[in-house]
Please model this.
Amino acid sequence: MELATTLTSQTVRNAVREVGINPNYWYPVAWASQLETGQILPVIIWQQAIAIYRDSNNQLHALEDVCPHKGVALHKGIVQGDRLACRYHGWEFDGTGQCVGIPYLPPQQKLPCAQVRSYPVQEKYNLIWIFPGNKELAAIAQPLEISEFANPDWFVVPITGHMQAHFSICNENSMDVFHGFLHQNLQGWFNPVLKSLRETENTVCAEYDVSYKGHMAKFLGLSDRAEQVTTRTISVQYRYPHYYSCLEGISTLYLMRLPVGLTESRSFAFFFFKVRLPKWFRKLFDPILQTLLRRFVFMKFLSQDIEMMNSEQQNYLANPQRRYVEINPAIIAVQRLIVRQYEQAS
Model:
């Protein structure tokens, strides 16, 4: 459905700051390279504590992070073969969450009926994904496709973000191209114009015309000279619960959201862009270039955004009844979608 692009005053729905997630999607929880064989990693998806472990066969398993015996966190335990043993008494659980061993019981004695919830888990794009909803839907709702990931023509910089804010605040920030004013000291974009806006059951798609200049614009191939102003179209798509944006074939961004709780969110992002450097140079220096761009470019942008998102959350908590005014219809559409997805899952 096409929506009007006129910037008119609308009241923000404060209820969006309290809603939960639709769990019937895949959510990223960690970089796969962070979890080695025999290790356990605690994560949280919307107030659900989960222990992920990689067994001796390098297979991933995800269990509710609580032992049904004494309530001890399972991530404090030990990986033994394909099992996770609770640190307290050594009760062992397999990948389905079933208790399959208690070290101080004789072999012939029947085990108690003790089980923890297990979650569908998979590794893709060097990310660990968990499906916290209905297991029967996990195979249907696969993680989003990232076609650039295995394409050598694209250079990628992975970025992790941690915000002390509700995921709706973070999602609005990702859709809001008008906040280029915040990044003006970093040679960000300026003069944005909302060209088109479309909404479906689970997506919001917006197109903006934005202008660029400076050395970063030249590096990205947006212009031939740093002092030259160039205007390009950026497409931003909120494909619940994650984001995709594209700058006319020059760069793409995949931003995967992890809602942790009412006032905490994380993100895992891939910035893909084409740099005009010889392939032999990239082969030798890609890791160094990734580190430099992450630290001195992308994290500077992200740090400014995080400061604003955290401030927005703090002021909401101080006065949840305060009314706010929004003029970007794309933000209002994102809010509708977040509430709608939550209500569908309730």
Observations:
- The chain has a mean pLDDT of 91.
- Residues 38-119 form a domain with the Rieske Iron-sulfur Protein fold (CATH 2.102.10.10).
